[in-house]
Amino acid sequence: MDISHMTDRDLLVEVIGPKATEQIYRGSLTPVFHNHDIPEPQRIKLHVAKELVTRMLYEELKRDISFSVPEAVKRYLLSRFSGQEHESFLVLLLDAQNRLIDLEEAFRGTLCQTSVYPREVVKLALRHNAAAVIFAHNHPSGVAEPSQADGMLTQTLKQALALVDVRVTDHFVVAGPLAVSMAERELI
């Protein structure tokens, strides 16, 4: 079966069936993954499908030669944060050639904020022997623009990590279907 040319609706029919698709699909996949009214069997199938895609994208990140171009990171982060109703702060730990060593959710917060502690980020980078890091966090509010607080936090973390020779290469803010790179905006 060639699914590459199937519509979103056709793909959903394959995963959760025609009746459930008719009830929940309104022209966009994003609300489908946020819909809490989906019957349990279909919700489980959608959750499994999303998890498989997230894992596949993570595998792609691990194979990528370098993280100097942020598109692969954006794809992964959009999948990773999709449907998440609380803020999370991720640290992507990189080796000297900017290849992914590991990715960790360093902090988890509430609907509108999370507390990030520079000391813990430094410990995490040293524990993984990282040469560089990329930060990412989500805004469940739906606004992907980096806030002034995001900029200040990035600078604080950058200064703390510089003391132990770890570079900060980027900080992504993810909201809904958007992922904003602070490096691309020259905010780092």
The low-confidence parts are none
Give the amount of beta strand, in percent: 15-25%
* Radius of gyration based on Cα positions: 18 Å
The tally of domains stands at 2
CATH class of the largest domain: Alpha Beta
Listing every helix as H and every strand as E from the N terminus to the C terminus, the arrangement reads: HHHHHEEHEHEE
Distance between the termini: 45 Å
Compute the number of helices.
7
The helix content, as a percent range, equals: 40-55%
* Helix/strand structural class: alpha+beta
Please outline the major beta sheet.
5 strands, mixed
Find the CATH topology of the largest domain: Cytidine Deaminase, domain 2
CATH architecture of the largest domain: 3-Layer(aba) Sandwich
Description of the molecule:
The termini are far apart. The longest helix is centred in the first third of the chain and has 24 residues, at 40-63. The protein has helices spanning 8-16, 18-24, 30-34, 40-63, 71-81, 118-127, 148-162, and strands at 88-94, 100-108, 132-138, 167-175, 178-181. Helices cover 43% and strands 19% of the residues. α1 (8-16) packs across α2 (18-24), α4 (40-63) packs antiparallel against α5 and α6 crosses α7 (148-162). It is built from 7 helices and 5 strands; from the N terminus they run αααααββαβαββ. It has 2 domains: 8-52, no CATH class; 69-181, Cytidine Deaminase, domain 2 (3-Layer(aba) Sandwich), CATH 3.40.140.10. It is elongated. The protein is α+β, with helices and mostly antiparallel strands. The chain has a 5-stranded mixed sheet, sandwiched between helices.
